[in-house]
Amino acid sequence: xxxxxxxxxxxxxxxxxxxxxxxxxxxxxxxxxxxxxxxxxxxxxxxxxxxxxxxxxxxxxxxxxxxxxxxxxxxxxxxxxxxxxxxxxxxxxxxxxxxxxxxxxxxxxxxxxxxxxxxxxxxxxxxxxxxxxxxxxxxxx
Length: 141
What we know:
The protein is mainly alpha-helical. The protein is built from 8 helices and no strands. The chain has helices spanning 9-19, 25-34, 39-51, 56-69, 75-87, 89-100, 108-112, 121-125. The relative contact order is 0.09.
């Protein structure tokens, strides 16, 4: 097993600002502090901040709320999953299915035949209108 140590604050700020240049040094420091400079958490937060237009103070508030319920390294993932469940509940259902299948390869045929699965998976996967981008998959009914 390889142990990876925490980042220094300077490294955390550099990582956050490198991926999300809109962050000021002060904002990046706030995020890094909440995440306790945990490498994976800082990387995840940098990606989220690069891809969304969430205000940094709002994100920090969400991270703090999730940190109260679990550890700092889990907070960015919890914020992301919460946003997915709120804004794209069908995508969250598919993510739950993928998580259930763990690291096993998921053949497209399984998803294409997903209407035969129990709810909520079958409800989502069995309705091409709920997953319109997937119609391009071979085998989609």
